[in-house]
Design goal:
The protein has 116 residues and is of the alpha/beta class. It is 28% helix and 22% strand. It is built from three helices and seven strands. The chain has a three-stranded antiparallel beta sheet, with no helix packed on it. The protein has a two-stranded parallel ribbon with strand order 1-2. A hairpin with an 8-residue loop joins strand 5 and strand 6. The chain is globular and about 50 Å long. The model has no long low-confidence stretch (mean pLDDT 89).
């Protein structure tokens, strides 16, 4: 419904605030794939990439008032998110699929394909 309403008014759709505490990345991948398939946003943004001692961010850090220490190793969902951001670049066209669990994208400018 949101995509249809935005399309009728000529407005782009952005998925601008997503975050979850699940660290494996499975939920993140499922959400991104479903959003790209059904919502078809122009942009997809993760809300908080770095977070203080919790799995909400893709990387944990220690935000003490006196100082900020080095970030800890990223959660597995960091690598899931990295696959989307490294391979589906600005200017790529998301191709329609009959399955929400498949993503194919094409860059006409660079003549490059990617698929998940």
């Amino acid at each position: 419904a949101l995509r249809r309403l935005a399309s009728e008014d000529g407005l782009p759709v952005w998925m601008s605030e997503h975050g979850n505490g699940e660290e494996s990345g499975l939920e993140l991948a499922q959400t991104i794939l479903e959003d790209l398939h059904f919502l078809r946003p122009r942009a997809w943004c993760y809300w908080q990439l770095v977070e203080h001692h919790c799995t909400w961010g893709v990387v944990e850090a220690d935000f003490k008032q006196e100082h900020v220490t080095a970030a800890m190793l990223p959660h597995p969902k960091y690598y899931v998110f990295a696959h989307f951001t490294r391979f589906v670049r600005p200017g790529f066209h998301i191709l329609r699929s009959t399955s929400p669990w498949v993503l194919a994208a094409y860059s006409p400018e660079d003549a490059k394909w990617c698929w998940f």
